[in-house]
Amino acid sequence: MSDKENNVVDETAEETTEEVVEETENIDEDKEKSAEQQINDLMEEVNAWKTDYYKVFADMENLKKRLQNEHANAMKFMMQSFIEQLLPVVDNFERSLAIVNPSDEIKNFLKGYEMIYSQLMEVLKAQGVTVIKAEGEEFDPNFHQAVMTVKDENFKPNMVVEELQKGYMLKDRVIRASLVKVSE
């Protein structure tokens, strides 16, 4: 080959080599960008999964606390409906003990009733039942239900004059409000 042809071939080879080198560099840059992009995409996905995990974990913790509170309340007040059904029995015991001037024979029955009544009240007390204080107390609509009002100079206004039916609480919940007369 002539020198001219060799020069043209060399120049063409150099140009081709430069193009190949540029393309290779571009491919390497694309690979680097692609790898960086993939890493960034994966980091975003990891962060999204972490966020979702933390949300689900927080939801589960909240659910756990709520279920524990509901269970504690259920255990605390599981006897409420039974006690509500038992209160009329307590009322009848109290009425039977309120007999005025009983005969000797009835006094013996009343002693037995008093023993049964006191046992019943101890059982209720052990379950957390307490009697709501009413007579002589200031009227509180959270604990008392006013049935009537009366004018009585012996009491300040808005005071409970008389308790018509006892009220009861189970632990810290009113299960039956006291029926009362209130002074005007």
Describe the structure.
This protein has 184 residues and is an alpha+beta fold. It folds into 2 domains: 76 residues; 107 residues, Head domain of nucleotide exchange factor GrpE (Nucleotide Exchange Factor Grpe, Chain A, domain 2), CATH 2.30.22. The protein is built from 3 helices and 6 strands. The chain has a 3-stranded antiparallel β-sheet with strand order 1-4-5. Strands 2-6-3 form a 3-stranded mixed β-sheet, with no helix packed on it. The chain is rod-shaped and about 140 Å long. The model has no long low-confidence stretch (mean pLDDT 86).
Name the CATH class of the largest domain. Answer: Mainly Beta
Question: Which overall shape is indicated by the principal axes computed on the Cα atoms?
Answer: rod-shaped
Mean pLDDT: 86
The first-to-last residue Cα distance is 131 Å
Kindly give the count of domains.
Answer: 2
Order of helices and strands: HHHEEEEEE
Instruction: Write out the strand line-up for the largest beta sheet, numbering strands in chain order.
Output: 1-4-5
Number of helices, where a helix is a run of at least 4 consecutive DSSP H or I residues: 3
Largest sheet: 3 strands, antiparallel
> Based on helices, strands and strand pairing, what is the structural class?
alpha+beta
